[in-house]
Amino acid sequence: MVPDAGTPAAAWCETRHNGGMKILRTPAERFANLPGWPYRDHYHMVPAGDGSGLMLQMHFVDEGPEEGPEMLLLHGEPTWAYLYRKMIGPLADAGFRVLVPDLIGFGRSDKPADPEVYTYQRHVDWLETWLLDLDLRGITLFAHDWGGLVGLRLVASHPDRFDRVVVANTGLPTGDHGATAAFLEWQQAAATADRFSVAAVIQAGTVTQLPDEVLAAYEAPFPSPDHLVAPRLLPSLVPTTPDDPASGPNRAAWELLKRWDKPFLTAFSDSDPVTRGGERPFHKLVPGAGTRTHPVIEDAGHFLQEDKGEALAELLIGFAAES
After folding, report:
1. Which of 147, 172, 214, 273 sits in a 20 to 30 Å window from 238, CA-based?
2. Nearest one of 121, 167, 153 to 278, comparing CA atoms
3. Which bin fits 33, alpha (ψ -120 to 50), beta or left (φ > 0)?
4. H/E element holding 44?
């Protein structure tokens, strides 16, 4: 049984200090016997990025044939690689090497306890280090939520490493056009709510009723409030004003995307008020989106991998084959 998020930190936290930085690493027993999760754990060390020389442990899934074409699945807020459990197996069976990292602060990856450690740029840097160290090439990217905010920056920085892109319920905001009321409400709630329940966020963002054991699996990485720094902070790092620190780098990334003529597909769901309409800039500005038909994933909420995971895997297999 997975302990709930109210379990005292002393009972469930592994804490490391180095140069004043406090890092939490969720104990392995929290992830025992998760439903639908037979996948092996892999780890890679990335620099913390604060000049201390400290390294952070990043967890990832690596399934399917080692020499198969690479399929990179990026999660967002406040999930982890578990979000893709319905997709990993079918994609691996289809011959893809399926890679699913946990962003720093999420899943089985290390969780710095200091909010100042987390910046938009560092999330890009951490994932970029992992991608380059593994020397991933010929990538098909599926990016969701914050996976798009980070992943599209990597596409812009390393376009030669990506063959095609699929984005779902995400964007690359610059703050030049503001944010939706629904997103601003979510941003405020994540930062100020007395209690932050990952399970409640996931359930509110799905159309289907999730079993208790699945909801517990989403809570597993976060045994105490101290572990929740990243999930509570990330919404505030999304650029909502033109002078945000990430606005300039994101504008530069858009300049590359405006020249991206490789295959590009949007797969937004029909029941997500936060990202509704977010596919339109991609259709208008990215040449690779072209005149192709972009599917709307019906009967799916923000976390469409939960509602329609198997169908998304089929979509990805077909998209890779035709493009």
Report:
1. 214
2. 167
3. left
4. strand 42-47
Q: Does residue 222 contact residue 97 with C-beta atoms inside 8 Å?
A: no
| Alpha-carbon dihedral 136, 62, 238, 117, rounded to 10 degrees | -90
**Catalytic residue numbers, as ranges:** 145, 272, 302
Contact in structure between 147 and 171 (CB atoms under 8 Å): no
Residue 51 has a pLDDT of 81
Based on C-alpha coordinates, what's the Rg of the chain?
A: 18
What six digits make up the tokens of 215?
């909801």
103, pLDDT greater than 90: yes
Distance CA 198, CA 232 (A): 10
CB environment 169-181: b (16+ within 10 A), e (fewer): bbbbbbbeeebee
Q: Regarding the domain with residue range 9-322, which homologous superfamily does it belong to in the CATH classification?
A: Alpha/Beta hydrolase fold, catalytic domain (3.40.50.1820)
Q: How far apart are CA 166 and CA 91, in angstroms?
A: 15
Q: Which helix (H) or strand (E) holds 56?
A: strand 55-63
**What pLDDT digit, counting tens, does each position of 45-86 carry?**
999 988 888 899 999 999 999 999 999 999 999 999 999 999
Q: What's the pLDDT score for residue 184?
A: 86
Cα–Cα distance measured from residue 151 to residue 235, given in angstroms and rounded to the nearest whole number: 16
Confidence (pTM): 0.93
Largest CA distance in the chain: 55
DSSP per residue, 107-120: TTS-EES-GGG--H
